[in-house]
Amino acid sequence: MKPMIKMVLFDIDGTLISTGRAGTRAMSSAFRELFGLEDAFAKVPMAGRTDPTIIRDGLEAHGLRAVDGTYTRYINAYLEHLAREMLVSPGKKVMPGILEILGSLKARSRPPVLGLLTGNIEAGARVKLENMGLWPYFSVGAFGSDHDDRNRLLEVALSRCREHLGLNFGPEETMVVGDTPKDIACSKPFGATAVAVATGPYSMAELAAHHPDHLFQDFSNPRPFLNLVS
Question: For the ranges 1-15, 115-129, 188-202, which has the lowest average pLDDT?
Fold first, then answer.
């Protein structure tokens, strides 16, 4: 028998929420403010990648380097723009079934630890989820600001769980929920249960090609997902 799932780690963009592209607009606006360049990330892939990697790729694409305080200045500008964008973004929404899933898991007599595994930097993740009312659900997290390599973030989340909650879980007791192949790649090969959901930029067929342990079109009916966490 497989071990019980004791920690569930969620990706943010495309999985928990859609910001209505507020994050992308904020990144572009920060670039325009600091460097006078429009649509700076047009050719930089974003889905499933860590924010620091995206930002460094954007800088390098325009002959800029993340040195001499440039990266820090950019991050500060990005966070300011992100907060403004999240206030007014017309397309922002919590994904179907997410509130029911989080509420049901929290209400259990022996609830699993709920956490985040995301390419967002921690401050950006907080801006997004506080705006959508979801930040209080999560007690641990692993973020793009912890490591550029998303495949290292499961290890970070498990370590944080030990350090901050005193709970020593293994990967086999952990579930990672996300909407991109990178969410599968950072979890299943390391022993965690990989749950993929096609509410982001990838179709069911595209996600299935990466062999997640479980695959959902969406969580509009949350019960099948909740039954996995026992």
Answer: 1-15
Place of tokens 């973004």: 89
Q: What's at 101, amino acid-wise?
A: I
What own/partner pairs with CB < 8 Å and gap ≥ 24 does 77-80 have? 77/29, 77/30, 77/33, 77/34, 78/26, 78/27, 78/30, 78/124, 79/123, 79/124, 79/127, 80/30
Antiparallel, parallel or unpaired: β 113-117 and 7-10: parallel
How far is 108 from 221, CA to CA, in rounded Å? 18
Among 25-39, 41-55, 82-96, which stretch is predicted with the lowest mean pLDDT?
41-55
Q: Which residues contact 77 (CB under 8 A, 6 or more apart)?
A: 29, 30, 33, 34
Question: Per residue in 61-97, pLDDT tens?
Answer: 777 776 668 889 989 999 999 999 999 999 999 999 9
Q: What are the structure tokens assigned to 194, written together?
A: 């990989």
Q: Read off the amino acid at residue 38.
A: E
CB 85 within 8 A of CB 21: no
Mean pLDDT computed over 153-168: 96
* Total residues found in the chain within this entry: 230
Q: Treating both helix axes as pointing N-terminal to C-terminal, what angle do 122-131 and 22-35 enclose, rounded to 10 degrees?
A: 130
Contacts of 54 (CB under 8 A, 6+ apart): 27, 41, 44, 45, 46, 119
Helix extents (H) in 166-229 = 181-185, 204-208, 223-228
